[in-house]
Amino acid sequence: MDNNNNNKNINNNESNNNKDNLCDIDDKNKIDDENVLYRLSLNPNKGGLQNVDKEKINKIIYEVSKGSAFFKNAKEKEKAHFEKIKEIKKKYLFLKNQPMEYEKQQMKNIMNKMESDRDLSQYIVHVDMDAFYASVEELDNPELKNKPMAVGSKSMLSTANYEARKYGVRSAMPGYIALKLCKNLIIVPTRFERYHELSHQIRNIIANYDPDYCPASIDEVYLNITNFLNDNPNYTPSKVTEELREEIYKQTRLTASAGIAPNICSDMNKPNGQTELKNCTDEILKFLKDLPIGKVSGIGKVAEKTLNELGIKTCGELKENMVYIKELFKPSSYQFLLSASLGLGRTKIENKWKRKSISVERTFSNTSEIQKLEDKLHEISCKLANDVKKENLKGKSVTLKLKTSSFEILTRCLTISKYIYQQEDLYKVGKKVKFIYIIFF
DNA sequence: CAACGAAGGACCC
DNA sequence: TACCAGGGTCCTTCGGCT
């Protein structure tokens, strides 16, 4: 599916020079709503959407959102994040004034070592279906083609077709907001069974090129075509990928995009196209130099903004600043960012996925009636027991998640001594957990 | 007293 | 009219026990 984490700052008309911003961190103690909008990831910046009138779209979204409890909550989050950023900036400014000679040399050594360990022997392909759910709906109902359409509900959209995107409609956008952007938008409900059916079909095609492919989501797969290339010397990586996409289209009438690279870091593709990154260090570094950090899978809007505020917008800049990142971030974040800055992903892909949790959640209208809450608990425990049974699972830790009317998320967990799977037990434990939050209020 | 479980977040689709 | 999902994974922080 399309990921929408490539947001840019919403107020790109204003002076956004981060080098300047670094100096007036204390003046900037007001959280403006534009920052909140940025956080909501409601600003359309998706590839292939150059024609949309961002200004107008943002205005509409803002008008619909402002004042809502959801918006208020986002504002609170933004405030907290802002404080964090302030701290980091302070440290950053301090470090910038230090010589850091030793650390710089050390970083150089670390990077050299990682560079020399770079594995360029593998050809990894990342296949990603274009607007998957929407395309499936068009496939089954061709009348929807060329009309603005999105899959989901009034409250939330999963994905939008390209016609709808012209209006600024996109995935993870509430349907009622989308309707404000596009009055004629057709919203069709999701049909997961159907998507899974096609997903299965697509994976079977992919298995012909790599039986050990790794599904990344319902519409995304990683595969290693190195063996295939060895067995078929007349193929090139891009020819294999072309053929694979062609085959998917032939059998399903759905288009896919793909990225080819020496590791599974690549995610740069356009609708119905493919991008190849040659197995060569210079190519990779050139590609990364101007790649916005938000494009990297794993860097979401929070991390993106944090880094942006340090003046780091591209992977190239990230690489240049790794000495500071090492001091400013937690070890695991640092490790991740270091790999990202060098364009190092895994070169081994595994498909041994093991489920670690299973869950059911439902959002309902505001209530403080205990009976209604218990009814909901009953409802989700039934669905959960059903799902658990289907997968032949059992568990001994039950977490109850509660979203308040102000969009706060609370979770309470209870671990018991024996494994359970039956609805009655799930409900019973759930009720016990629930007690905790009833006392809470 | 460190390991650990619980709660909260960030992220992805 | 009013209105922002649901299903996962992984990481960090924190505190009361063993």
TrEMBL record:
<feature type="region of interest" description="Disordered">
    <location>
        <begin position="1"/>
        <end position="21"/>
    </location>
</feature>
<dbReference type="InterPro" id="IPR043502">
    <property type="entry name" value="DNA/RNA_pol_sf"/>
</dbReference>
<keyword id="KW-0235">DNA replication</keyword>
<dbReference type="GO" id="GO:0070987">
    <property type="term" value="P:error-free translesion synthesis"/>
</dbReference>
<dbReference type="GO" id="GO:0042276">
    <property type="term" value="P:error-prone translesion synthesis"/>
</dbReference>
<dbReference type="Pfam" id="PF00817">
    <property type="entry name" value="IMS"/>
</dbReference>
<comment type="similarity">
    <text>Belongs to the DNA polymerase type-Y family.</text>
</comment>
<keyword id="KW-0234">DNA repair</keyword>
<dbReference type="InterPro" id="IPR043128">
    <property type="entry name" value="Rev_trsase/Diguanyl_cyclase"/>
</dbReference>
<dbReference type="GO" id="GO:0005634">
    <property type="term" value="C:nucleus"/>
</dbReference>
<dbReference type="Pfam" id="PF11798">
    <property type="entry name" value="IMS_HHH"/>
</dbReference>
<keyword id="KW-0227">DNA damage</keyword>
<dbReference type="InterPro" id="IPR024728">
    <property type="entry name" value="PolY_HhH_motif"/>
</dbReference>
<keyword id="KW-0548">Nucleotidyltransferase</keyword>
<keyword id="KW-0239">DNA-directed DNA polymerase</keyword>
<dbReference type="GO" id="GO:0003887">
    <property type="term" value="F:DNA-directed DNA polymerase activity"/>
</dbReference>
<dbReference type="InterPro" id="IPR001126">
    <property type="entry name" value="UmuC"/>
</dbReference>
<dbReference type="GO" id="GO:0003684">
    <property type="term" value="F:damaged DNA binding"/>
</dbReference>
<protein>
    <recommendedName>
        <fullName>DNA polymerase kappa</fullName>
        <ecNumber>2.7.7.7</ecNumber>
    </recommendedName>
</protein>
<dbReference type="GO" id="GO:0046872">
    <property type="term" value="F:metal ion binding"/>
</dbReference>
<feature type="compositionally biased region" description="Low complexity">
    <location>
        <begin position="1"/>
        <end position="20"/>
    </location>
</feature>
<keyword id="KW-0460">Magnesium</keyword>
<dbReference type="InterPro" id="IPR050116">
    <property type="entry name" value="DNA_polymerase-Y"/>
</dbReference>
<keyword id="KW-0479">Metal-binding</keyword>
<dbReference type="GO" id="GO:0006260">
    <property type="term" value="P:DNA replication"/>
</dbReference>
<dbReference type="GO" id="GO:0006281">
    <property type="term" value="P:DNA repair"/>
</dbReference>
<feature type="domain" description="UmuC">
    <location>
        <begin position="124"/>
        <end position="300"/>
    </location>
</feature>
<keyword id="KW-0808">Transferase</keyword>
<dbReference type="InterPro" id="IPR036775">
    <property type="entry name" value="DNA_pol_Y-fam_lit_finger_sf"/>
</dbReference>
<dbReference type="Pfam" id="PF11799">
    <property type="entry name" value="IMS_C"/>
</dbReference>
<dbReference type="InterPro" id="IPR022880">
    <property type="entry name" value="DNApol_IV"/>
</dbReference>
<dbReference type="InterPro" id="IPR017961">
    <property type="entry name" value="DNA_pol_Y-fam_little_finger"/>
</dbReference>
